[in-house]
Specification:
The complex is a heterodimer of chains A (137) and B (115). Chain A has 137 residues and is mainly α. Helix content of chain A is 69%, strand content 3%. Chain A has a domain of 37 residues. A two-stranded antiparallel sheet of chain A has the order 1-2. With 115 residues, chain B is mainly alpha-helical. Chain B has a single domain, classed as 3 helical TM bundles of succinate and fumarate reductases. Chain B is elongated and about 50 Å long. The N and C termini of chain B lie far apart (38 Å). The chains are: A mainly alpha (137), B mainly alpha (115). Chains A and B meet through helix 1, helix 2, helix 3 and helix 4 of A and helix 1, helix 2, helix 3 and helix 4 of B.
C-alpha cells in the first residue's frame, strides 16, 4: 500500500501561499535549487553518450555526423551550460560527502577536510586517466 | 514504493558519485575540447576498438546507467518541491525511474550489439 498523502476531511489551517519562485528570495535557496537542477544536465550528457555509442556502432560516417552536430552553436551552448552545471554538481557533491559519510580510523573521526581532499585527489587522478585513454588515438 | 526507497537512495548516491568523478572530464572532452578543436577528435577506428573492449563496455554501462538513476531520484524531488506537484507523486516517480530504466536498457542493448 502507498502511504497516505494527506488527511481527508481535515479542518483547514492557516497556511501562507508560497510562490513557485520562493527559491529566488535567498542566495542559499537559489544555490539549493541550482544544485537540484544539475541532475537535468547529468541526464542530458548520459543521453549524448548514448547517442555517441549508437553512432560509433553505425560506422565512420555516422560518427562523423555526430562530431559535426556537436560543433553546431546549439550543442556548443548546451554543452557549455551542461559542463558548468556538472562541475557545480561535482563540487557540491564532494563537499557534502563528509556530512553523509563519517569515516572512523582507530576510533577517531577522520576530519572533514581529509575526506573532501581525498575526493578532489581521486577526481584529478580519474580525470587524467580518462583524458589519457581517450586522447591516445 | 516504501520498500525500495533504500535501493533508490543507494542508486542516487552511487550515480551522484559516478557523475561527479567522471562527467566533468567526459563532457569537457566530448562536448567542448573536441568540437572547439582544442584537441584532435578521436578517430572512429580508435574509439570503436576502445568501446568494443569488454571492460569499456561495462564501464560505459555503469557510466550511463547510474547517473540516470541519480537524475531520476533528484529530479523527482525537484518536481515535488520546486513546482509543488505533490498531488502527482506516483506519476512523477513512475516517469522518472521508468526513464532511467529505459536508458539503462538502451545502453545495455547498444553496448551488447555494437560488435
Amino acid at each position: 500500500m502507498s502511504e497516505p498523502h494527506y488527511t481527508l476531511y481535515h479542518p483547514r489551517w492557516y497556511r501562507r501561499r508560497v510562490s513557485v519562485w520562493w527559491w529566488l528570495q535567498k542566495g542559499s535557496y537559489t544555490r539549493f535549487v541550482l544544485r537540484e537542477i544539475t541532475s537535468v544536465f547529468v541526464a542530458f550528457f548520459a543521453v549524448v553518450y548514448l547517442w555517441q555509442i549508437y553512432t560509433l556502432g553505425q560506422g565512420p560516417e555516422a560518427y562523423g555526423r555526430f562530431l559535426a552536430r556537436l560543433r553546431t552553436p546549439l550543442f556548443l551552448a548546451l554543452d557549455t551550460v551542461a559542463f558548468l552545471f556538472v562541475l557545480f554538481h561535482a563540487i557540491t557533491w564532494f563537499n557534502l560527502t563528509p556530512k553523509a559519510m563519517v569515516v572512523r580510523l582507530r576510533g577517531k573521526r577522520v576530519p572533514d577536510s581529509v575526506i573532501v581532499g581525498a575526493n578532489y585527489a581521486a577526481w584529478l587522478v580519474v580525470s587524467g586517466a580518462v583524458a589519457f585513454i581517450m586522447l591516445r588515438g | 514504493m516504501e520498500r525500495i526507497t533504500p535501493l533508490l537512495w543507494l542508486l542516487f548516491s552511487a550515480g551522484g558519485t559516478v557523475a561527479a568523478l567522471l562527467f566533468p572530464v567526459h563532457l569537457f572532452l566530448t562536448g567542448l575540447a573536441v568540437p572547439l578543436g582544442w584537441v584532435e577528435a578521436p578517430r572512429h577506428e580508435f574509439l570503436y576498438r576502445l568501446v568494443t573492449h569488454p571492460v569499456t563496455r561495462l564501464y560505459l554501462l555503469v557510466l550511463i546507467s547510474l547517473p540516470l538513476f541519480h537524475w531520476a531520484h533528484r529530479f523527482r524531488y525537484t518536481l515535488y518541491d520546486g513546482l509543488q506537484l505533490k498531488h502527482l507523486t506516483e506519476l512523477i516517480a513512475v516517469l522518472c525511474y521508468g526513464a532511467a530504466l529505459v536508458g539503462t536498457a538502451l545502453a545495455a542493448y547498444l553496448l551488447w550489439t555494437i560488435a
